[in-house]
């Protein structure tokens, strides 16, 4: 009888220990389904797009055509500050724009549309019906774990520009951190290069485009043209102090804008960054 009581006691101790271990075992992270990932990153992209509209930044656009032995045969260079006027309209204030020496290429309206929308690609919720999105797999980019998707337009509407290629979505913040592809459709005899677009974490929350790189050969009827292009988006600054864009429809006053211009006039120019240096994707997500 005594032995039986001891065995029963040991059984209860083992059972209790097992139950306690199950209760204290840390819960495993549940991976969302692919459809949920798409829904969530599109929602985050919508928020990201709205947030970027409340930032000013500098845009440095540098395009070169390349000849034999890597020689530069033409160049288009334009540096601008993307700011807001006194009616809260986003405007481009050109700060450096030497005469273009391009001969083999011509900058078109579609090129500027692509620079503003397709190349710094954002796939927001409102854009989902326009695109076919196919899950490709998972990939690690330096310290970032990402979902990879192939993206292409479902149909082409005349006058609209689209992205066709591949995107990498950070699996924590669920925002696009890299895009690689091409702007479509081709218009007339125009050709559009394949590009890589990178983002960096801004203010510990948003992923904004900071770098676009092109090294491609465009095949025209008159012959191929080798082009290289680097676009940098720097100096992201959210409106604050006297100059701001309000969320509830407020408008910055004319005095505010003049104050900002006066402040900016006293700021010395900075040296342009190395055009070959890509952004550091290891930048932490949180401050």
Structure description:
The longest helix has 23 residues, at 2-24. The chain has one domain (30-238, 251-263): outer membrane lipoprotein receptor (LolB), chain A, CATH 2.50.20. It is built from four helices and ten strands. It is 22% helix and 39% strand. The chain has a ten-stranded antiparallel β-sheet, with helices on one face. Residues 5-10, 241-275 and 282-287 have low confidence and may be disordered. It has helices at residues 2-24, 34-52, 109-118, 254-265; strands at 55-66, 72-84, 90-96, 131-141, 144-153, 162-170, 176-184, 194-202, 206-220, 223-238. With 287 residues, it is of the alpha+beta class.
Q: Number of DSSP strands?
A: 10
- The number of domains: 1
Strand order in the largest sheet:
3-2-1-10-9-8-7-6-5-4
Give the overall form: globular
- With helices defined by DSSP (H or I, 4 residues minimum), what is the helix count? 4
Low-confidence stretches: 5-10, 241-275, 282-287
> Percent of residues in beta strands?
35-45%
Structural class: alpha+beta
- The Rg value, from CA coordinates, equals 26 Å
N-end to C-end Cα span? 65 Å
Order of helices and strands: HHEEEHEEEEEEEH
CATH topology: outer membrane lipoprotein receptor (LolB), chain A
Helix content: 10-25%
Q: Which architecture does the CATH hierarchy give at level 2?
A: Clam
Class, according to the CATH hierarchy?
Mainly Beta
* Average predicted local confidence, pLDDT: 81
**Largest sheet report:** 10 strands, antiparallel
